[in-house]
Amino acid sequence: MKYIVLLGDGMADWKIPELGNKTCLEKAVTPNLDRLAPLSEAGLCLTVPDGMKPGSDVANMSVLGFDPAKYYTGRSPLEAVSMGIELGPDDVTVRCNLVTLSDKEDYEKKTMLDYSAGEITTAEACELINYLKKHFDGERYKLYAGISYRHCLVVKNGKTGNKLTPPHDITDRRITDSLPEGEYGNVYAGLMKRSFGLLKDCPVNVKRVKEGKKPANSIWLWGEGTKPALCNFESSRHLKGGIISAVDLVRGIGMLAGMKIIEVSGITGNYKTDFQGKANSAVDALLNGLDFVYVHMEAPDECGHQGDYLNKVYSIEQIDGVLGTVVKRLDEARENYAVLVCPDHYTPIACKTHVSDPVPYLLYSNVKDLSNGAKRYTEAECALTGEYVGRGHKLIEKLISVK
Fold first, then answer.
1. Which domain holds residue 107?
2. pLDDT tens digit sequence for 285-336
3. Could you tell me the CATH number of the domain that includes residue 263?
4. Distance CA 138, CA 177 (A)
5. What does the pLDDT look like over 37-52, one tens digit per residue?
6. Is 23:316 a contact under the CB 8 Å cutoff?
7. Are residues 65 and 113 in the same domain?
């Protein structure tokens, strides 16, 4: 039996006036989901436990079967593991975004124009982070370059418990009330402010501005944490598992759980990615020894943060194509399988950030009729079935119980 999760990050949404008061799932043309929905179990799942923030870290951990209340220690350490950073027991890691802030005001009064600095390229970002390293790195603090706008600061013998705001939560808002607070608040705020002075006139940014692109003119620190210890996926689930993702966060969860990281060329973490490459790589892995593959597709979430409902619809249609390829190839191979389709959380266009609403899920198998009344895979149809999973980390048990 083969098991696959198709995770459309941030895919769920609220109704959007510009789409005729439909959600992106309702608007998207999804022939494969439409065909399988009446044959599937559909419902809602609470992936973010009460009292926890609705981040992709917590939510993906839930869908992979790890109780965040037990295992979660912060976002940044998950990414640090994927980046190959060796962490000591007393190290604290902090996510370091390259962002675009407004230019003219005092730092404390600037506006968050773009949490991703216009999705800056990895090559440009690495040049900027390596420049900052010359000014910031020392015995206590060290910067590490990652992918695109996503980077990491490691603090030796640090402490958690600071109030740090995700930059995507404050898009188009002043940063005044969102600057770091707590024991390290002044230190982190000082690094951020200093970075603006260092970055604004860097050749990379001068060139970006001339090209009409957004400059990466500041760092933004958030998502602190310490190294977690996840149980081994194969030992606990008795399945050989793999992860496909362009995002360090999800890859880090997989690495900590001892899962295989399946490399796919051409994947980006946005809607300009190789969706079919992910689909075919997932099936290849299942046909060559793996029992379980988690395919993480970041594109809908990025579009949600940008308020880009058209490309969010496009991304969902591409995810439908991934489902079509997976089902077709596994059927042709005469494999028995079950597939779970769901987002990790909502990323509504209306607010451009994550919310904790229970997410819609669809569970299909070619060996068992799971139908419970859904006509399509949409937020409303999944709610109408009355099926509800109140503890997100239990959703995977529905999937792997299909035999």
1. 82-225
2. 999 999 999 999 999 999 999 999 999 999 999 999 999 999 999 999 999 9
3. 3.40.720.10
4. 29
5. 999 999 999 999 999 9
6. no
7. no
